[in-house]
UniProtKB/TrEMBL annotation, chain A:
The gene is mrpB_1. InterPro entries: CPA3_antiporter_subunitB (IPR050622), MnhB (IPR007182). The chain crosses the membrane at residues 7-29, 35-55, 71-94, 114-136. Pfam families: MnhB (PF04039). This is Na(+)/H(+) antiporter subunit B. Its main location: membrane. It is found in: Cell membrane. GO terms for cellular component: plasma membrane. Keywords: Cell membrane, Membrane, Transmembrane, Transmembrane helix. It is a multi-pass membrane protein. Residues 7-131 form the Na+/H+ antiporter MnhB subunit-related protein domain. It comes from the Bacteria. Belongs to the CPA3 antiporters (TC 2.A.63) subunit B family. The lineage of its organism: Bacteria, Bacillati, Bacillota, Bacilli, Bacillales.
UniProtKB/TrEMBL annotation, chain B:
This is Na(+)/H(+) antiporter subunit D. GO terms for cellular component: plasma membrane. It comes from Filibacter tadaridae. The gene is mrpD_1. It is a multi-pass membrane protein. Residues 127-416 form the NADH:quinone oxidoreductase/Mrp antiporter transmembrane domain. Its main location: membrane. GO terms for biological process: ATP synthesis coupled electron transport. Keywords: Antiport, Cell membrane, Membrane, Transmembrane, Transmembrane helix, Transport. Belongs to the CPA3 antiporters (TC 2.A.63) subunit D family. The chain crosses the membrane at residues 6-24, 31-48, 68-95, 107-124, 130-150, 162-184, 204-228, 240-264, 270-292, 299-316, 328-349, 361-382, 402-426, 447-465. It is found in: Cell membrane; Membrane.
Length: 140, 494
């Protein structure tokens, strides 16, 4: 049975970008405010899951040709990597650091290694959530 | 700052992650896995030696000092277990190479073994109760995957029980942590110990300690072992051996840590209960080991007996008994891995796990038979094999405190162990051979070598107990004197 989902498709095409933007916003604001890699990652993955629901798996795979298991693994590697990086630079494991830099467009910006750690967390969450949803859908 | 302390957890974690990317390159996965195990073993030996020189080592994650940050603490007790874990896992991986099959290897078998080791080593090393919970979860999640991987019906049936019981006990664990935090406002183990010593262990804290006891006895199979026989006989041999050697030991370790470092003031209540539970475990395990005719079930009930026996050492709490428990823990990790490998290999060779359907295996596979014999006398505790020294010290501890019931039941269980394994030996290895030469399934070298390695290990551990004694004495000394541990953790200028 083919359902008529024109409205859903049309709305999704716009809403996905809103969700993705909101996810990135949450991720970045997490540095000093509520938010962060985990929540940002969840919101980002909800956008992907919405895409998978509205369009079919093959279509979305054409657009996003990644193995989400590998994305999760890469995320963990990134997060652990920032911890090990601290060891290489001679401080305690998982030490995070930051520096004020003057960037052309953004002005004085604080760059912190925590962002890398959080990016790892976000990637892991996206990878794991999408993998779970895809595995469940395969079973049905 | 001693970044080396975190390495026994980081090396397997990184290895596991990297192996995910090498999914289809099975040979590369094996090589990297072995290299990582060798590195872990080397690092563990190095840390163990350094502890003897510099005392207990610790690392504050991110430079946040205890009690605020998370710390990893390496004392001799933890490091002895970490070292044994690395060696046992290495040998079990060799067995897995030839037995686990391509399907498993391509379905992330090795990464999850390494994540399991991450959790196990993390649990041994952590100095923070909440972090202990997290490491337990890392270990359990990997074990959920390993127990279901392959997806045979029996595995799925047993894994549901296993997952449900562990989620329940994790929930209790979280509850106990919350109670404790509400009561004393800290979760750093050394800090907890100081605060509870200051305010005294009132009935409320004793009740909280009993919730912890409930959690750890579920995990280690002390009295609450009813979930254990089913779930440990479902997965493939290499996985069962890994579980049998490591998982219950982590629960036992946690129990030792918590009841020697934090809740050691109200011994009349807590340690008496542990003693009663140990006795009931010994009796229940013995009945199980005698009742079944399935070699896998007999092997599983032997785990239960060992858990009870090790906890006798905690129940009497003298330095000699602690030494005995530590020796016995190390011995048990090795010998249980060997026992499960042998049982799994017998199942592979004959296609049955029933005692009465096997006979005369020693004529077909002599080396296997003699290895089983060594396992049997080592588990019973006959010198010079590794089980002897542990039993001796635990016995000494019970005599010192006059706990003769524990002494008698503990040593009676040794006889039951001997009898249950002797039954397998007499029925399966002796007697008329029923496998003709044409039907004989060839025994793979890759399966025999790990068994031989474990056999050598149990003999060396028995003969070379002297060489280990400095480490074990130091470990028992730290367990007996919590202030040594506290001093090392809370002293800020290390």
């Amino acid at each position: 049975m083919k359902t008529n989902d024109v409205i859903l498709r049309t709305v999704t095409k716009i809403v996905v970008f809103i969700i993705l933007t909101f996810g990135v916003e949450l991720f970045l604001s997490g540095h000093n405010n509520p938010g962060g890699g985990f929540i940002g990652g969840l919101v980002l993955s909800s956008a992907f899951v919405l895409l998978y629901l509205v369009f079919d798996v093959e279509t979305v795979h054409k657009g996003i040709p990644f193995d989400f298991k590998k994305i999760a693994a890469f995320g963990v590697l990134l997060a652990v990597g920032t911890g090990v990086g601290a060891v290489i630079f001679g401080s305690s494991f998982l030490t995070q650091t930051f520096r004020e830099l003057h960037l052309p467009v953004f002005g004085n910006t604080e760059l912190a290694t925590v962002v890398l750690f959080e990016a790892g967390v976000a990637l892991t969450v996206v990878g794991v959530v999408v993998t779970i949803i895809l595995s469940i859908s395969e079973d049905v | 700052m001693n970044n080396i302390v975190v390495m026994p957890m980081i090396i397997p974690l990184l290895t596991g992650i990297i192996l995910i990317f090498l999914r289809s390159h099975v040979i590369l996965q094996r090589v990297l896995g072995m290299l990582s195990i060798i590195a872990m073993t080397g690092v563990s030996i190095y840390i163990l030696k350094r502890i003897q020189l510099d005392g207990i080592l610790r690392i504050d994650f991110g430079g946040w000092l205890p009690p605020y940050g998370i710390t990893f603490v390496a004392d001799s007790f933890a490091m002895l277990l970490v070292l044994t874990t690395s060696i046992v896992t290495g040998i079990l991986l060799i067995y897995a190479f030839s037995s686990i099959g391509k399907e498993h290897e391509k379905l992330f078998f090795y990464p999850f073994v390494f994540f399991l080791i991450t959790g196990v080593n993390g649990s041994f090393l952590t100095g923070d109760l909440f972090n202990l919970f997290v490491c337990f979860e890392v270990m359990l999640l990997s074990s959920y995957v390993l127990i279901t991987l392959g997806g045979r019906k029996i595995q799925l049936v047993e894994s549901i029980k296993y997952v449900v019981i562990n989620i329940l006990s994790s929930w209790f664990f979280l509850l106990a942590i919350a109670y404790l935090y509400g009561a004393v406002g800290t979760l750093n183990m050394a800090h907890l110990s100081v605060r509870i010593a200051e305010v005294g262990q009132d009935p409320l804290l004793t009740v909280i300690s009993l919730v912890f006891l409930l959690v750890f006895s579920l995990k280690s199979g002390l009295l609450l072992y009813y979930w254990l026989p089913g779930s440990y006989s479902a997965p493939p041999t290499a996985v069962t051996a890994l579980f049998g050697a490591l998982l219950t030991k982590v629960g036992i370790y946690a129990m030792f840590r918590v009841f020697t470092l934090i809740f050691y003031h109200d011994i009349n209540v807590t340690h008496t209960i542990i003693g009663i539970m140990a006795v009931l475990t010994l009796v229940g395990g013995s009945i199980g080991a005698l009742a079944y005719k399935d070699i896998r079930q007999i092997a599983v009930y032997n785990i239960v007996i060992a858990v009870g026996f090790i906890l006798v050492g905690l129940a009497v709490s003298t330095e000699a008994a602690f030494q005995g428990s530590i020796y016995y823990l190390i011995h048990d990790m090795i010998i249980k891995a060997l026992l499960f490998l042998l049982v799994g290999t017998m199942f592979y060779l004959t296609g049955t796990a029933k005692i009465e359907k096997m006979s005369g295996l020693i004529r077909n596979y002599p080396l296997l038979g003699w290895l089983f014999f060594i396992t049997m006398i080592s588990l019973t505790g006959i010198p010079p094999l590794s089980g002897f020294i542990g039993k001796l010290y635990i016995g000494q501890g019970t005599v010192e405190t006059g706990s003769y019931i524990l002494l008698v039941i503990g040593f009676m269980s040794s006889i039951i162990v001997l009898y249950s394994l002797l039954r397998i030996f007499l029925n399966c290895f002796w007697g008329e051979t029923i496998i003709s030469e044409e039907d004989e399934v060839p025994l793979k070298k890759g399966m025999l070598i790990p068994c031989v390695l474990f056999g050598i290990l149990t003999i060396t551990l028995g003969l070379g107990a002297e060489g280990l004694s400095t480490f074990v004495q130091d470990a028992a000394h730290t367990l007996m004197n919590p202030e040594v541990y506290i001093e090392a953790v809370l002293n800020s200028n290390q």
